[in-house]
Amino acid sequence: MAPESYRKNDPEPPVVDGDKRLPSTETNQQQFRAPECNSTYRAPPCVRLLGGSDASDCCDETSRNVLVGNLRIHGWSPIVVPDAPSPSPSKEEILGIFRRRNQRVGDGTNELGDVVYVPSESGSSEGTVEPKESLEVGLSNCQDPPDGHPLPGESDERTVKTFCRTLSWIAHRVCGVVLELPPDSFLPLDPGESLDLLRVFHYYAVAGEEGTSPAPTLGSSEHTDWGSLTVVWQDAVGGLQTYCRSSHRWIDVRPEAEAEAETPVRRKGHRWRCIVHVGDMASLVLGSPHAGPTAAGESNGSENDKKNDKNNDADALPVSWPSPRHRVVSPSREERVSLVYFGYPPRSLSLDRIRAVLDGGWKHSPTRGRRLPLGDYYLLRNQSATGAGGKAGDGNGDGNINGNEDDSEAGRLFRKMWDLPIQDIVRLKWEQVNRD
Ligand SMILES: O=C(O)CCC(=O)C(=O)O
Ligand SMILES: [Fe+2]
After folding, report:
1. What is the pLDDT of residues 404-434, one digit of tens each?
2. Structurally, what CATH architecture does the domain formed by 47-207+215-257+267-289+318-383+405-434 represent?
3. Which of 99, 202, 310, 381 has its CA 20 to 30 A from that of 118?
4. Does the CB atom of residue 240 touch ligand 1 within 6 A?
5. ipTM surpasses 0.95
6. Which of 379, 368, 380 is nearest to 408 (CA)?
């Protein structure tokens, strides 16, 4: 059946304005609480973050509560950042970088230094080719922009690195100043410890044979992101969709131009409109706070009784901080570009260690609840071409036909990954999806 999209006459989400310093009474917090994701779907409201480097002047309590509410309920949120350190890109600028790179390669001259070109990908375990190209660079390669006049190609490399640093800056503001996460939990303070990655995407237009096929061509097949959080910038074409688990619909995430119309610019500065996604690693460490991978149904005496009690408590909680399943529908007329910044926890920490840090005192811990069924996390699927676990689930999956998560492939992977350094988990995942 064709997935149903966000209908144009669905109610528009409000923009919650960080400039309006509403008194932070409980009434106001309730009034601006993000709506539940149900059959009358309302997209999470856009949160405008103010300038400033600490919690008190970056984000008033209302905005912070709405962002926490969006991520807790939906696992994603639109945000507006009015004071980023560099300008938001234009579509032409990004297309120009791809054009010049492809031209230079045709001429046999240099590529883009630390920025790596990735051609069309086979994005699913079925091997479907995703009609796009991309450029990628790690944050650890983006420090200290060089001085002086750039050589041909270097200027584009610098531009991509600047995008990477700016999106990193936004990710750090969200984690540190807005969500008030402990330092070195979701993102490392030291860029040398960072596995974060920027990908610049160019999705080709795929002429639709309208009326002949209900299934859209996917520029990015459905998935969840593996890391701690992802920050996405997309152009005015749109195409990013998020799956609403309650209404079983794919929801269009509104593109820049549409949102721009109702979000007047109030101050000078580099204004970025982005989407934040909760990643699998974050969702797993935030979910079921008292139940790690070994807590469910194992028998080891009195310790086990304690664990089971806690686990039963966790079962009664609502799902919170889900990592949203999303995809990109290929455009049918106009090509599309996006910037996607994948944030990861510090490379040498384990999920177990990060959970301990959060348990040690995170202000928003009461928002924690139950995690998704393990089979819903792509981090816990075998995404290799031969791995059955790469197959898209139906959204209710637990990865095991008997419904026992522990016995499922996802359960086994979860136990294996829980104590591994993040860098080993990421290496394992790249090995799965590398199909050259
Ligand atoms: O291009 C986009 O907007 C999102 C792509 C994406 O979700 C991903 O690469 O993980
Ligand atoms: Fe993604």
Report:
1. 777 789 999 999 999 999 999 999 999 988 7
2. Sandwich (2.60)
3. 381
4. yes
5. yes
6. 380
